[in-house]
Amino acid sequence: MERFLSTWVASSVALAFAAWLLGDHMDIGEPSETMTNRVLAVLLVGLFFTVVSMFVAPVVKLLSLPFIILSLGLALLVINALMLLLVEAISDGFGVHFVLDGFWWAVLASVVISIAQAVVRAFLPEGD
């Protein structure tokens, strides 16, 4: 449980950083909402991202292993971008505002999120 919570926190912080860095190309929460509602939106999107990363992404990566090997790992960029677009669709289904401007912005966002998660995880305690 502690690992899930630390991953959720790291994902939420990384998503918020990516949304800030990418500006109009990635948006979490309506700009007209209160700060509390925007933080809740980031936490919900972070929750969706964590669940997708823990349960869906490993299956997709396992099934795509031959393509990952043939592309020397570049297929992982595509998979991570598609997982982020899946989180966008899930968020939309739950009525949470999370918008990416397309596939290539999702690729860039997934790179930024991966780096930001690594930095944030360095400061969080490791869970079992």
UniProtKB/TrEMBL annotation:
This protein's record includes keyword Flavoprotein: no
Pfam families membership: Phage_holin_4_2
Membrane spanning stretches: 39-60, 67-90, 102-124
Keyword Plastid appears in the UniProt entry: no
Domain of life: Bacteria
UniProt entry keywords in alphabetical sequence: Membrane, Transmembrane, Transmembrane helix
Official protein name in the record: Phage holin family protein
Organism: Aeromicrobium alkaliterrae
Upper classification of the organism: Bacteria, Bacillati, Actinomycetota, Actinomycetes, Propionibacteriales
